[in-house]
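Fold it.
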Amino acid sequence: MKRIIYFILFAAHIWCIPQLAKGQQLPQFSQYMFNGLHINPGYAGYKSEGYIQSTYRSQWVSFPGAPRTFTITADLSANEGMQGFGVSFLTDQIGPARTTGGLLTYAYRVQVGDESFFSLGVSGGFTEYMIDGDLMRFNDPNDPNIPVGRERLVTPNMNAGLFWHNNRFYAGLSAFNMVGRGALEREDISLAFHDFHFFLTAGALFPLSDVVQFKPSFLVKEIKGAPTAYDLNGMFLFMERLWLGASYRSNMMIWNENLQENLGNRNALAFLVEIFATPNLRLGYAYDHNLNVLQDFRNNSHEISVGYYLSPRNVKLKNPRWF
């Protein structure tokens, strides 16, 4: 029974990312708009100061083998923010499968207007895919197709992205998993597929009063063999200290009309809160509620983030912390 549950979770996790139905890919985050390194290496150095963030996501709480993701990122800048550097570490566990990766990022920024900047970023590193076959032998201990013990494969990884912003608007386009697929193509075992991921994002910040601002944004995610997914976000900023908002996540058939329709029922709502507990310390929380077949199980998702700005409190930022 546990083996069946793991299989269902593995497939459902991939659908909800969204990803290939054939293997595990990049994990999903609800608070990506507060840490652009998760979706675009061109974001590195945007803040013109050092920033360290850790995120933990527990998906479908209390479900056996449910996905759990942990990341640590460091976003650094030099030359008054015209060069950005990043370090990222990620581990994603779902049932008997685990993905672990590390990346180094560099971004170069040029000023293209009085208050607008354009940057190109690249990141490179590795990804390890692991599966523990012993956790899948509950019903079929002698199945020759199940690996004995842990199997691992390591592949190189490379991402690239473009990012533009001024003091009120931003937009970005990026591609992930640009190299490394060949390292996973072994005849004796196939742990995962390592396909291109494309991210398109944009947003703006509009003042509503002296103490309230509104930030609408969107994210479009495209992966080969999966429906096109999108997030629509609305966040309110109060007194430049407290963020409150929500996201609606769904998908649509654009390039993959031949996919089965039942892959499309992946709607979800996320409720988000971010607060500057101090001028340097930032705390975030997101609660995801499924609007598809998983809502009947009442196993929703929680995501917690902690970020810390390295700049002294009396330093006036060249770029705001809004994106």
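Residues 2-16 form the longest helix (15 residues).
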